[in-house]
Amino acid sequence: MKISIYGVGYVGLVSGVCFASTGHQVMCYDIEAEKISMLQQGQTVLYEPDFFDLLAGTLEKKAIEFTTDLEKTIAFSDMHLICVGTPSEDNNGKANLTYLIQAIENIALHARDHFIMIIKSTVPVGTAQKAKKRIEELFAEQNKDTAFHVVSCPEFLAQGSAVKNFLHPDRVVVGTDSSYAFDRVKELYAPVTQEAHVPVIQMRNSSAELTKYASNLFLATKISYMNEISRIAELIGADIAETIQGMVADKRIGSAMSNPGCGFGGSCLPKDLKALIYQSEMYNHNPILLKAVLEVNVEQRRFFISKVFSLCEFNVKDKIFAIWGLSFKPNTDDLREAVSCDLISALAKAGGQIHAYDPAAGPNAKIKFQSFSNFTLCETKEQSLKDADFLIVMAEWSEFYNLDYNLLKSSMRYPVLIDCRNMYDPKMITQHGVAYFSIGRGFLPGAAC
Ligand code: UDX
User: Which residues of 33-42 are buried (b: 16+ CB within 10 A; e: fewer)?
Assistant: First the structure.
């Protein structure tokens, strides 16, 4: 099938390249000329496992084309996938739909008869309905008589595993009341759904739009719940890791998204949470649980940062903090809403020396913290340890799991490990003479060895 994609942000780019890799012909449009030119040359503009090879392969096969030519993209197909950004307008959660409306209007005015507009961007519930109305208004103004279908098809990609999530989805949600549009979208996804018998679920547009928020916020709720239990565990002397082990053995609970930490970040969970709270309030509903999920997250982030300060007895000045893992989660270079950024700012402002290391997000961090003279980006994790007072592990990259205890002891002034992902075995760490703080398990001094 031929498809046109608008917006080569995270969702547009991964979807475009994955669709192209499954046999479709894809044209991707964006206004950002520099980005398009890089993609045309096979240069990746995002850090995502497996993405680069897939991009190179689809370009070589000429299955994908990148362009800044809007008219050409609209003329390319009758399936138009809108993947533009819908950033928060401000901190109140209202989504900015400027780019989305522009895309809808442009496509509507120039697309051929029976076109299908597929909204993949995360949008407030009711957006597809508004899009239909706007298109009808435009057609009335222009005396245009074109049949069209607006489909809501949310994306469930997680950064760091987006290619895998796309090619092996749990489900495909298709919001439309048109059986013609549903069949076409089902056909589009057939290469990734048919063999594995993945359900393609048809529902009304608003239900599909809500499914995206409801799914993300369920995950956010699970994390906040675990974070809250971890705080209680620490206070009463339980070990959260043991408790979780006991919980997740119950299949109804499950182990995914059950790790306590320093609060969730990223471009989706915090934004989507605020957006649904905002929209609920617009309907005069007080979303008590969603507000609590957000509050627990804000509090967990604050708690973790103040814990770091209290572990150095509020004497941060001139202490050296080796910080491993800057991105909001492993396998991405994305710093959006990463707790590491709040921690680094707080420590740097208090006069601490930051020696940071990240396998991918280093260049982004260098730009973000360029105004802090006490922020040093290290080439290796080993280098960051030199004379450090504390090692703080913020994201569970696989290369952080194996610790060289001898190096920790010989490089650091006094080895204290602060682990906000509960990556390590407390017994093992402390037996090696390293003091250890982790989430929901309290502080353990290193045994003398
Ligand atoms: C999320 C959803 O998972 C995905 O389905 C949706 O399409 C987009 O939003 P993403 O933001 O990429 O994906 O990352 P996710 O893996 O959900 O992690 C979000 C945050 O929660 C990260 O900061 C992560 O560290 C944190 N987290 C995750 C925990 O604190 N504990 C966990 O058990 C899992």
Answer: eebbeebeee
